[in-house]
Design goal:
Elements lengths: L2 H13 L2 H7 L4 H15 L4 E3 L3 E4 L1 H27 L5 E7 L8 H10 L3 E7 L2 H9 L5 E5 L8 E5 L4 E7 L12 H4 L3 E5 L4 H11 L6 E6 L2 H9 L4 E5 L11 E10 L4 E6 L6 H14 L3
Parallel strand pairs: 3-4, 3-5, 8-9, 8-10
Antiparallel strand pairs: 1-2, 5-12, 6-12, 7-10, 7-11
Helix pairs in contact: 1-2, 1-4, 2-3
């Protein structure tokens, strides 16, 4: 058994296709199949249901796949840790971000990349619950998420800027002047929102309900890009993070401030406390902390 066989197994799970898994691993499909059969022979277990195409994993295969991910993550963490001890950062920083986060991680990643050109980045849009779960299981190195449900015994955190809210609209369809809007004015507009249960949506609902107001929700979606498309097309407006830079996507979009509008929970940069802890995450934490301290 070797690390490459585990990589092949994981690639097959992620692509659900023998040919695509082989292409991702830069090998031929017969080689991929042979190496996976060798792994099955060594373990004495059938891992893959085979027909004319990939038909999923066997029950033992699913269990072995979970261990394969753990072993591969530990191997990559070991390599990154060794490089960090030599004064270099290599590997992939895995960062999970809640939808509609007001914190833009790109400047931080750009500084890391400039200092460590061999570093790569993997950004995932996840719910607050998914971020904590994947940090705990070492499938993420860092999270940008809300801190209201954070267990300080399990996670370290750095508080980021407060998330204020504004109304994103297309100026070809709506014109609100220059003054901040109020929540009552928003009830007269068709609104697009994230689906109920998502953290940003909960803050919006609370703002309306605490004032005895009922919003006119025309569109609900769990995809931010669909909200942006709907706003750009004039179908609706959407409450968004005020400092998110979304209005810069096209010349027609604008974010109008909403008076007394902020997300309920503070946003923070989160890292697991227990070992093994990512050297990449620690470097990112240290860089952001250095940027946050006044000179």
């Amino acid at each position: 058994m070797d690390i490459k066989q585990l990589k092949f197994l994981i690639a097959l799970d992620e692509t659900r296709h023998f040919g695509q898994a082989a292409a991702r691993c830069h090998i031929t499909q017969p080689t991929l199949s042979m190496r996976l059969r060798n792994l099955e022979d060594e373990l004495g277990l059938p891992l893959v249901n085979r027909g004319q195409r990939f038909e999923g994993f066997t029950a033992p295969g699913e269990r072995i796949l979970a261990w394969a991910r753990t072993v591969l993550e530990a191997y990559e963490g070991l390599q990154a840790e060794a490089a960090a001890c030599r004064g270099h950062l290599v590997g992939t920083l895995r960062l999970g971000v809640v939808p509609l986060s007001s914190f833009d991680p790109l400047p931080l990643l750009q500084k890391l990349h400039a200092a460590h050109p061999n570093l790569r980045f993997e950004l995932s849009a996840l719910s607050a619950e998914q971020i904590l779960e994947q940090l705990a299981s070492n499938r993420l190195d860092l999270g940008i998420s809300f801190l209201d449900r954070l267990d300080p015994q399990r996670f370290d955190s750095l508080v980021l800027n407060e998330t204020r809210m504004g109304l994103l609209h297309d100026q070809r369809h709506y014109d609100f002047g220059e003054q901040p809007l109020n929540w009552h004015a928003l009830t007269e507009l068709p609104l697009g929102m994230l689906t109920s249960g998502m953290h940003f949506r909960q803050s919006i609902d609370q703002a309306f309900h605490s004032r005895g107001l009922q919003p006119n929700v025309l569109l609900q979606t769990d995809a931010v890009h669909q909200l942006l498309q709907a706003v750009h097309g004039g179908l609706c407006c959407a409450v968004m993070p005020l400092d998110s830079g979304l209005e810069a996507l096209t010349e027609h979009l604008r974010l109008q401030p909403i008076a007394d509008a902020q997300v309920l929970a503070p946003l923070g940069l989160i890292m697991r406390r227990s070992a093994p802890r990512s050297a990449l995450a620690e470097a990112c934490f240290a860089l952001h902390l250095a940027q946050s301290v006044p000179a």
